[in-house]
Design brief:
CATH architecture of the domain at 319-388 and 445-530 and 561-698: Distorted Sandwich
Distance between the termini: 71 Å
Structural class: mainly beta
Organism: Dicaeum eximium
Pfam families: Cu_amine_oxid, Cu_amine_oxidN2, Cu_amine_oxidN3
CATH superfamily of the domain at 319-388 and 445-530 and 561-698: Copper amine oxidase, catalytic domain
CATH topology of the domain at 319-388 and 445-530 and 561-698: Beta-galactosidase, Chain A, domain 5
Number of helices: 10
Radius of gyration: 30 Å
Helix content: 10-25%
Largest sheet: 26 strands, antiparallel
CATH class of the domain at 319-388 and 445-530 and 561-698: Mainly Beta
EC number: 1.4.3.-
GO molecular function: copper ion binding; primary methylamine oxidase activity; quinone binding
Keywords: Copper, Metal-binding, Oxidoreductase, TPQ
Amino acid sequence: MSLKTVLILLGLALATIFALVCVLLTRERIPRSCQQLPPEQEDTEDGQSLVFADLTAEEMSGVVRYLQGHLGVPLVDASRAKPSDNCIGSVDLQVPAKAEVLRFLDAGGARPPREALAVLYFGNQAEPNVSEYVVGPLPTPAYHRDVTVQKYGGKVPYHRRPVTGREYVDINALIQRELKKAPRFLAACCESDGTDLVTLTTAPRGFKSGDRMTWFVLFHNVAGTGYYLSPVGLEVLVDHGNLHISRWQLLQVFYNGRFFASTGDLEQEFVAGALEVVRLKQPPADAVLGSMKPRRPPGSPGPLQFEPQGPRYSIRDNRITFQGWSIAFGMSPNTGPRLFDIRYRGERIVYELSLQEALALYGSNCPGGMSSRYLDGSFGIGRFAYELVRGLDCPYTATYVHRHYLAEADTPKTNQNSLCIFEHDSALPLRRHFSDSQSLYYGGLRKNTLVIRTISTLINYDYIWDFMFHGSGAVEVRVHATGYISSSFFHGQGTDYGNRVGPHTLGTMHLHHIHYKVDLDVDGQLNSLETQDMEYEFVKDPWSTQNTIERPHLRRERLQKEDEAAFPLNVPLPRYLSFVSPKPNKWEHPRSYRLQIISFAGKHLPTNSSMERAISWGRYQLAVTRRKEEEPTSTSIYNQNDPWTPTVAFADFINNETITNEDLVAWITVGFLHVPHAEDIPNTVTVGNGVGFFLRPYNYFNEDPSVDSSDSVYFSSEQDVGACGANPLACLSSAAACAPRLPPFHFGGFLNL
């Protein structure tokens, strides 16, 4: 090898080494423009929000130990308790009284004692009942008091208790025993011996108080897909009201439009050739109706949202701060997400914003479908908010928070990463203007929003709960429905109640109605309700008096009584509805927040229905009442299994009390009618299936508060718009170099089922 060749190779080697060194030296170095910046420091409350914090797992366990040692009765773990046992149904935070909390938050008063609310099922008593106890102080309980009579006027009858997981297991065992009495029928109709069929509960359970009789719908169970779309046409009615499981019985059987006294009678009819059977084949896993498995290989990745210098919000304990906003967040195992002490620029706007109930009411020509009125709070909206999938349910870089709950067990469970918080760029201006006359300029502000999200899976449906906080001082609340539709076996005049979506599957019509509590405190607790709407007035034009002008005229009204402020569902609302303060803004208008409802609700259950009072909140798209400590929720978990004598009837809240300069609560119903169709297979999509409401400042400020945003953009024709110092948008090219190293994908949501 010549010297020249050696020198060339040596030079190339040195150049390669130099390049590698440069790469290694710069690989871990973060550009200065990408250095993570701490969020704006707005947190000076020093842990005050913990007064609203959900119970920790340790606190729940402490409550269980206390109850086991101080009630003087044997307690069986609810996960294995029979109806004839005593057990702990649930343990949750006992939210302190508002007056106590405000003395603590605003007036330097003592911190309210931290307490839990425990729900107990007493089956092993002379008079079985459900009782509720307040237990405290936490974390080391020393007292308990029975608050059942105080809350409900008496003991809660035992038949109103929610159905536990253990009870469902015992019901399924009974159904399996009964199915064995019809082996030839099952082989013919379903290619089954019954063990591979699954049941879906309906509710409520009967037709009068004291009933505990439930229709169960049977489906083919195919691994890896939703069974809700594969009904086999068989439904059974089970009486499970007796304390002794051995006395439970199957009362009726329904198949393909006919009723039978038992599975034995069904078998006998089949053997005699007197039964028309629809012969279904076991659906193969790769071709089953409703499979969500991808049909194409992955394509190129879509857009990715990230924060170039880290999150611009901060989270401390149960409190979030973001660009003037401050929110305390939590989760009830029954009713789901709840927010407290929502402030903007240091002023409380909302004391409590909480989900109350989710109703799904079905129609069908099968008994299970036609009798279904699910009140999801009874099943557990918060309890079934499972782990969120990073990058799909929420942005990959969102902050994920664990939630703990204790229900139907003596040991707390954790739904990891089941609530997410993120800043969302909606790719829409919050405001903008391009000036094309006189002076030439552009001004605008991106619509960046703080989002708090959780998703509840309630059997077949998935509800996406969003709470959004805008730079204009507005709060947006939104729910989307997705997941699987529920279905009935298609027979007879099935299309009177929905659409056929499979060979033997009827997508059954239903309505979703969602109820919220909004305790607004607009510039103080004392507010009134004002409506504004338009009328046309016909006037002579004042400059000639020869012509007539139709002039829009603003009509304002202060509502005086609760009855005036109860607006029926599906009746047009006044276009402007506002909680107003006695105090004016700079322009002498009352400082106000406007309620703006976006809903496509179906029709409410007729008021002459025997169970209507249990969901009487659904009569109203908006009802404004005086706030009362003894009216904390619009419904009860006990209403599901006894809607005929509801434990809480919202209609009783409206008794024509004065609502002028009082502490007021807005109760809001949103929803939509859903007639399932072919495009609901495999899942209902979120597009067009979102409803909610806004809380918008209306003369609350002297101008739009977003003018103070550091994200504002303004440049004129005389400026160099490409200069980063003059135009923040010109800086984005360097921000693109700040793409974060994403954490490895992980999902543990199947581990805690």
